[in-house]
Amino acid sequence: MNSLLKNVLLASVILPLTFSTAYAKSDCKKGHNAMSFKSMLKQVELTSEQQADIKSIMQSYRSEKGTYHERKMAIMKASDFNEAQAITFIEETNTKTLRKDKRLNNMKMTHEVYQSLMPEQQAKMDLLFEQRQQKMQNKKAKCAQQKNK
Question: Per the structure, how many domains does the chain have?
Answer without folding.
Answer: 1
